[in-house]
């Protein structure tokens, strides 16, 4: 079975916060941050399996502190756990006040990606090898999160069976 170190999927993105990026509270739009998160997580997933990937789920996005125009925002992502064809990617969002240098964890997120072959069919991915304490901790709790994702997906499917597809104006 092929294996890859977590560090091989590690990816960083740093951005400045501009006036067009903020909401009426003068903090970064949550949707803008979510787009950054999905983008960088997809890069980590692709680097891990060296294949095309698709977002299977955004498992969580926890907004922990506001991101202001005086901050830079740095996203760090890496594959933490793998299944057969799926990869869990963790994204850590760190703000830095550009005037004081103070850093804060502003958000965390877990996403799941599936690797695809040339026919857009799921394909087996390499196992992940954690090395640092942070990587080992995230990897050790990955199976539990995968079980929660499976349960949530089953519940969502069951729930969706009761939803209507007719538009209100029809």
From TrEMBL:
Composition bias, Basic and acidic residues: 134-159
Region spans: Disordered: 133-159
Enzyme Commission numbers on file: 3.1.2.20
Domain of life: Bacteria
Protein keywords: Hydrolase
InterPro entries the record matches: Cytosol_ACT, HOTDOG_ACOT, HotDog_dom_sf, Thioestr_dom
Domain HotDog ACOT-type: 7-119
GO molecular function: fatty acyl-CoA hydrolase activity
Entry similarity comment: Belongs to the acyl coenzyme A hydrolase family.
PANTHER family, per the entry: ACYL COENZYME A THIOESTER HYDROLASE, CYTOSOLIC ACYL COENZYME A THIOESTER HYDROLASE
Protein name stated in the entry: Acyl-CoA thioesterase
Organism: Paenibacillus vulneris
